Amino acid sequence: MRALRSTTVAAVAVAATLTAVSGCAQKSDAKGADGKGVIEVTATDTGCEVSATSFPAGHVQFSVRNKGSKVTEVYVYAPGDRIVTERENIGPGTKAEITAEIKAGTYEVACKPGMKGDGIRQKVTASGKGAPAARDPRLDAAVAAYRKYVQEQADQTLPAARKFADAVKAGDVAAAQRTYALSRVGWERTEPVAESFGDIDPKVDVRADGLEDGQKWTGWHRLEKSLWEEKKISEDDKKLAAQLITDLEDWQKRVGTAEITPTSMANGAKELLDEVATGKVTGEEERYSHTDLLDFQANVEGAQHAYELLKPVAAKNDPALAKELDKQFAAIRAQLDKHRDSESADGFAAYDTVGKDARKELSDGVNALAEPLSKLAAAVATGK
Amino acid sequence: MTVDGTKNNGPADGTAGEDAPAATAGRDGGRVPSRRALLGWGGAGLALGAVAAGGTAVALRTGGDAAPAVADVSSAAVAFHGPHQAGIATAVQDRLHFAAFDVTIDDRDELIALLKEWTKAAARMTAGDAVGDGAVGGLAEAPPDDTGEALGLPPSRLTLTFGVGPTLFEKDGKDRFGIKDRRPEALVDLPQFPGDNLDRARSGGDLCVQACADDPQVAVHAIRNLARIGFGKVAIRWSQLGFGKTSSTTPDAQTPRNMFGFKDGTRNVSGDDTAALDRHVWVSAADGKADAKRGADWMAGGSYLVARRIRMHIETWDRTSLKEQEEIFGRDKGEGAPAGRKNERDTPHLPSMLPTAHVRLAHPDANGGVHILRRGYSFTDGTDGLGRLDAGLFFLAYQRDVRHGFVALQQKLARHDALNEYIQHVGSAVFAIPPGVRDSGDWWGRALFA
Hints:
By secondary structure, chain A is α+β, with helices and mostly antiparallel strands. Chain A has helices at residues 13-16, 137-169, 173-180, 185-189, 191-195, 201-204, 220-230, 235-254, 262-280, 292-317, 319-337, 356-373, 376-381; strands at 20-21, 38-43, 48-50, 54-56, 58-66, 72-78, 82-90, 95-102, 105-111, 120-127. Helix content of chain A is 46%, strand content 16%. A five-stranded mixed beta sheet of chain A has the order 1-8-5-2-3, with no helix packed on it. In chain A, strands 4-10-9-6-7 form a five-stranded mixed beta sheet, with no helix packed on it. Chain B is α+β, with helices and mostly antiparallel strands. Chain B is built from eleven helices and ten strands.
């Protein structure tokens, strides 16, 4: 967690640029792709037809008709697969209306018969002033792949978090201790994106020292304290466990709308290492459970994933940097491997058993990686 | 202090580097000095030819190409290039940041690349310039090359002195860089002295950089930026800030006092006494030859540095009577005169002192003429958790051969010095200080790796 610090992943993208307005249950009065901007979308099991592939920017209405045999869903994606708006559960033979404020630029409309996969896609263009400059398609692909990763991490976190919450609700301290750290991995891998929704992080990942006056302490670390320091589960803890799941579900639902750019990916990777440097190496993050090393690994994994996706461009613009990053990622992973403990629930030695010399070594490794990683954004943003 | 009164270095920095071509600046010259034509302190002026005229113009650091402002002489630049490294015979600056590094790689070429990059950055910083592409004005997406806290500050007589420790030659039985046979015999591992209570985390180091400046921010900036450049190749093992010089190499100036309140370094080697420097401080070509079976000829023009963190038991010292304090040192507290004499610089009469008096034991006359060049600083690192000042002397001494310098002296002091009741050595390191960087094509340690 990080208190009160802005991240480079912009806050709630939808609010910032594109306002999706749910067209729930609106009756279609489509007048074609006229000044009112109504676009007909015909979804089938094998196709996704749009009545116009270019239209003026502004208030746009998508009128969806599902002519297929499967339940479908329709998404409008901005470059990098950022969700502009979407509707799920459009049954065979039914219609749905979706409206959105759409800025000038290129988009994709995707129909997903069976509500699965990447969908059948159509490129569309909203014309008007202020269209963003075309970006390197490799970077768009990187952003799209990263967005997918972020969503996967959220999707995988929920079952693990439910296991943890169930143990808490059952009052089973031992089971809750075993599942605590594992429930945090997906979050720790993608934390900068999660933090871009300013309201979720303070609810689920705040530490005692990050609380503001009057703020109720909720989330993982409050439960951590109960489990390891107080060694008992109160009635309030059980409610907190349920609240944690609600808040994480909110994250899972919204994470796809985060604004992600190649630069924010690169800086997000660096921020994950910042997290390691300020919270994990010091043992502050998991001060009761001492499960810092699993968080550490998750932060590194998340940073490495973002880097690997940007690497095709970074390696071309700055080959020496890519070489150094490859080396340092491998080095830090090898260092972490030295602290594995197969007896432990989370696979790592408890951090309070890691001595001063070993911590210094880890700290040096983090510095060795984070310094070149801080140059990744520039290598992605500009060719040399 | 006057320019004349603090002239030092002798020929030490007497060779102008290629980085200082426009040696025409000076307040009498009526010309705006080039940022690189900064005046050296004392001997550096021999290179630049301006001190004789009393020129004292210096350039302030700027982020871009703004015209430099003019400041006073204590903020001038010390020449980086010369036959000996600056920061030894150089008139002692007011502040210190000393850092010892561990090398975390074992690739010789990578280490050499780092030393070249360090040398380049050091030359820039000592001239008052920012590192790399500067602290501002670069790519918005990238962190700046320079960290920026020295922007707008003058060079402040910053010197950066580089050294290599015994563990660079061999560590855990491994000759990581293929230089094991080049370790000078004079670079000994210091023996354990009676009373030593050394903290391993504050001792040793594969490399060291001594940053001295009249402005602490300039010294800290230098170490911070070198550490940053080094991430992934070197890691700071320990570092020490010093806030007040305890010795001077400028005998005409007032002798500074240590944390015990006594004048220190009265009989120090003077920075402009070239004969004494050659005899006691600089390694000669002949020394290198004598040491040559170990391939140590690369040290000619260099020196050896011993660094000791000496904690002082400040509170108990302060409860000691003036008489006892003066007897322990062998000098009076006010003037600094040797026991039984009147003035600080009167020749000491050693038999008038207690046999355990510090000055009597340490004086060259009692040690077969052994001289070391002391360049230490007082430190106070807050308190120790028991309400006592964590303070003392960060002792730095340069010598031609550690075996006949510090080791010989300390063997005696550790056993007999009355001061031992009030001090404890808690950190220790020894480094070989290579000769100076000759010009802009040269780099720290080149001769060692040649």
